[in-house]
Amino acid sequence: MRLLLARHGQTEWNADRRFQGHTDVPLSPRGRAQAHALGRALRGRPVTAAYVSPMKRAVETAEIALADAGIPFTPIEELRELSLGEWEGCTVDEIRQQDGDPYAARLRAPLDCPPPGAEPLPDVRDRMVIAVDRIGEAHGDGDALIIAHGGVISVYACHLLGCSFNQLWRLRVDNCSLTVVQTPRLVTLNDTHHLPDELQS
Predict the structure, then answer these.
(1) Sign of torsion over alpha carbons 101, 104, 110, 112
(2) What is residue 70's predicted lDDT score, i.e. its pLDDT?
(3) How far, in Å, CA of 60 to CA of 70, rounded?
(4) What single-letter DSSP state applies at residue 195?
(5) Is the pTM for the entire model greater than 0.90?
(6) Cα 141 from Cα 46, distance rounded (Å)
(7) CB 148 within 8 A of CB 127
(8) What's the CA angle centered on 179, arms 193 and 152, to 5 degrees?
(9) What's the CA gap between 95 and 108, in Å, rounded?
């Protein structure tokens, strides 16, 4: 099975560098434009089924990107973004101003220095593996699309690469980028060639 993993389009919180996590934030106008560009890129690919995080920004991306393709999409709870605990709703600058700059510590070692109350990264990996296995059982050998979030896509990429989750933020997953997986291989990561220059992060 080949998987195309797309991150949702940009939200206003992405633009403000505000932590979203489980907070259900809709797409911004820029994010909707990115979703249209993703849809154009998908037209040339043999995708026959799509699966999506139940969160608003991912569902809206799927609705726009797949509007003309005639491809149904199925929400899967395990594809939701990871929780960021007490950081949700805060900006990067607000976290940087806290004692000891916990944002910098998390960039260096996200596994060892999570936000207070955040979902453990191994738990995120476990539910992503469950979701991918379920998709594989339902979909067989064809191409399937997953529209989800930067955090869960990065965690799954680390899992495939066999690297520590402390390396998580060395991987970049932009809004409406495509990551291709031919299980168990990571084929491409963060392809944004389909996005016009003005819509790239």
Answers:
(1) negative
(2) 84
(3) 16
(4) S
(5) yes
(6) 12
(7) no
(8) 130
(9) 15
Residue 44 is predicted with a pLDDT of: 79
Residue 60 · residue 11 · CB < 8 Å:
no
Do residues 97 and 69 make contact, with C-beta atoms less than 8 angstroms apart?
A: no
Encoded tokens for 138: 């339902």
Residues designated as active site: 8, 81
What one-character-per-residue DSSP string does 23-74 give?
S--PBPHHHHHHHHHHHHHHTTS-EEEEEE-SSHHHHHHHHHHTTTTT--EE
Instruction: Identify residue 113 by its one-letter amino acid code.
Output: C
So what's the pLDDT on residue 176?
98
CA distances from 15 to 6, 27, 51, 186 (A): 18, 11, 25, 28
How confident is the model over 96-127, as pLDDT tens digits?
999 999 999 999 999 999 999 999 999 999 99
Q: Which segments of the chain have a pLDDT < 70? A: 140-141
Q: Give me the residue label for tokens 């992060």.
A: 201
Map tokens 């820029």 to a residue: 30
Q: What is the helix, strand, coil percentage profile of the chain, to 5?
A: 45, 20, 40
How far is Cα 132 from Cα 114, in angstroms, rounded to an integer? 25
